[in-house]
Write a structure and sequence with these properties.
Helix content: 10-25%
Strand content: 25-35%
Number of helices: 6
Shape: rod-shaped
Distance between the termini: 101 Å
Mean pLDDT: 80
Structural class: mainly beta
Length: 378
């Protein structure tokens, strides 16, 4: 009856497996007496065995399950070959693919079992080094960049964003960048403001600049910057563009509190070279305590100034023959950053103000006198 069951259902049982060992046998099926063979081999060949472990299919055609590798061939008495689990691919860890693999710390993605070679699909990929650090990727190793805590580290993690960074900024001014890296070039850098917030600023690192390298940009205006209004501020991330975007830092205090010098520079170019002082045709600068204090406490540069800035309380140097600071009104439209000086009634005088309809940072009342204007501190 064991062989009859195997014949009628096509499924081998333990009893039928034993019976095939008989040398000669007759079986009675539902259709009558049927001779199924006279040898164990012929009997075994007529019985279909179920697919073996780690495989699937309609016996006797069986294939390995996803994540397993091997070839199965139906033979008398069962199958030849086997299905073995595939090891976790590079960049992942775990027992094997069927048991489950996870991307190594510092990588994002996943590993899934597949029925086609290599019998897995892996999207594990090392994440890039986080901000304030440098290196190939987190898995290979990242170190804190210039201006950030040298003892800080970037630790790979298996939880998004797949790293733990302790790189904290230590530089507070562009001049501080120069101290750490005399050979560094002009561009965007991270600094800590006096409010302990990290800002992305543009630094002019040109030794040829007045008083030396290390000037920080506070504003960019001029007729090449149309439609500037009082609400136009420079986002922290925009300072890294070259040239920096038009606009101004909404608050000068976090930067001015850590500075002592001021520079005003203009250019007839719509896109001057912000990496070199030579990119600006005219400029004046001052080391006056009063000038930087005005930026620190919300004051202005108006009041008591003599023509061309010669004399107290603020003495300007540089191209003073082109920048006329007329003390003809106090304070006029100068109400505090970014409106710092107003030579009201004097068309040839400095108008470094925001008149509501636009940022008029100009060495004259004519905003078209220069295509680009800029305010710097150091």
């Amino acid at each position: 009856t064991g062989i009859e069951t195997a014949l009628s259902t096509g499924v081998a049982t333990e009893r039928s497996r034993a019976l095939v060992a008989e040398a000669s046998i007759l079986a009675v099926s539902s259709t009558g007496i049927r001779a199924i063979g006279t040898t164990a081999a012929s009997i075994a060949a007529s019985i279909i065995f179920p697919c073996p472990a780690n495989s699937t299919g309609t016996a006797p055609v069986c294939v390995c399950l996803p994540g397993f590798v091997g070839t199965l061939t139906s033979v008398p008495g069962g199958y030849s070959g086997s299905c073995q689990p595939v090891a976790c691919p590079a960049g992942s860890t775990g027992a094997n693919v069927p048991a489950g693999c996870s991307c190594v710390a510092g990588s994002s993605g996943s590993v899934r079992a597949s029925s086609t070679s290599p019998f897995y699909t892996s999207t594990c990929s090392p994440v890039a080094c986080p901000p304030n650090s440098a290196g190939t990727n987190v898995v290979s190793g990242c170190t804190c960049v210039l201006g950030y805590n040298g003892t800080g580290v970037v630790i790979p993690s298996t939880v998004a964003p797949y790293y733990i960074s302790t790189c904290t900024p230590t530089v507070r001014t562009c001049l501080g960048i120069v101290s750490l890296c005399p050979s560094c070039r002009s561009g965007g850098y991270y600094v800590i403001g006096s409010d302990s917030i990290t800002y992305n600023v543009w630094c002019l690192l040109d030794p040829a600049a007045p008083l030396g390298s290390g000037w920080m940009l506070l504003s960019r205006g001029g007729s090449a910057c149309p439609a500037l209004t009082g609400s136009t501020v420079i986002p922290r991330t925009s300072m890294v563009a070259n040239p920096p975007l038009c606009g101004y830092q909404s608050d000068a205090k976090p930067f001015a509190n850590q500075a002592s010098q001021v520079m005003l520079a203009v250019s007839t170019s719509t896109v001057p070279d912000f990496k070199r002082i030579s990119g600006f045709s005219l400029y004046v600068y001052t080391e006056s305590v009063i000038a930087i204090t005005a930026l620190q406490n919300g004051g202005t540069w108006n009041g008591g100034l003599t023509v061309q800035g010669v004399g107290l309380p603020i003495t300007w140097q540089g191209d003073t023959g082109s920048f006329y600071f007329y003390a003809s009104c106090n304070p006029g439209a100068a109400t505090g950053w970014p409106s710092m000086y107003h030579s009201c009634g004097q068309t040839t005088g400095v108008h470094w103000v925001n008149l509501g309809g636009g940022l008029l940072h100009s060495r004259t009342s004519d905003g078209n006198a220069q295509m680009t204007s800029s305010t710097w501190i150091r």
